[in-house]
């Protein structure tokens, strides 16, 4: 043991042990991503929770498509419509007559980034 090993703090020792285990490092980075998403949740969600359509609450998750549509290569979604069958069960289907492209850094509802800066960019 040299002098450098004797002067390490408990945090440095724990960090060195953590770096040796690949699975622990994977878990660490997953936690970093989740905490970052939580801190910047307002940025990633373009609409406020008050701005929702209650009648669409039971719609299934929207599938994201990628391809060339209307002359552009982009990510896009189809709007889901619902109808009832003869037993009054909700049947959902994708309305494929119009696409809705996904946009990044677009304008949405107003929010405060980190509780400090007022912005509408999402």
Characterization of the model:
This protein is an alpha+beta fold. The protein is 30% helix and 34% strand. The protein is built from four helices and five strands. Strands 1-2-3 form a three-stranded antiparallel beta sheet, with no helix packed on it. A two-stranded antiparallel sheet has the order 4-5. It starts with a helix and ends with a strand. The mean pLDDT is 81.
Q: Descriptors for this entry?
A:
alpha+beta; 122 residues; single chain; three-stranded antiparallel β-sheet; 5 strands
Beta-strand segment tally: 5
As laid out across the biggest beta sheet, the strand order is: 1-2-3
Structural class: alpha+beta
- Strand residues, percent: 25-35%
Distance between the termini: 52 Å
Mean pLDDT: 81
Query: Can you tell me the residue ranges where pLDDT is under 50 for at least 5 consecutive residues?
Result: none
The H/E string reads HHHHEEEEE
Portion in helices: 25-40%
- Quaternary class: single chain
**How many helix segments?**
4
The major sheet is characterized as: 3 strands, antiparallel
Instruction: State the shape.
Output: elongated
**What value does the Rg take, in angstroms?**
23 Å
């Amino acid at each position: 043991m040299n002098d450098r090993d004797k002067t390490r703090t408990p945090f440095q020792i724990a960090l060195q042990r953590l770096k040796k285990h690949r699975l622990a490092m994977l878990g660490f980075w997953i936690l970093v991503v989740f905490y970052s998403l939580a801190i910047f949740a307002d940025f990633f969600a373009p609409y406020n929770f008050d701005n929702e359509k209650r009648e669409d609450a039971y719609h299934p998750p929207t599938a994201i498509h990628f391809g060339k549509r209307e002359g552009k290569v982009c990510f896009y979604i189809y709007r889901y419509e619902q109808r009832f069958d003869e037993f009054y069960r909700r049947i959902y289907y994708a309305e494929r007559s119009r696409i809705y492209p996904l946009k990044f850094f677009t304008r949405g509802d107003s929010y405060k980034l980190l509780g400090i800066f007022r912005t509408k960019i999402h």
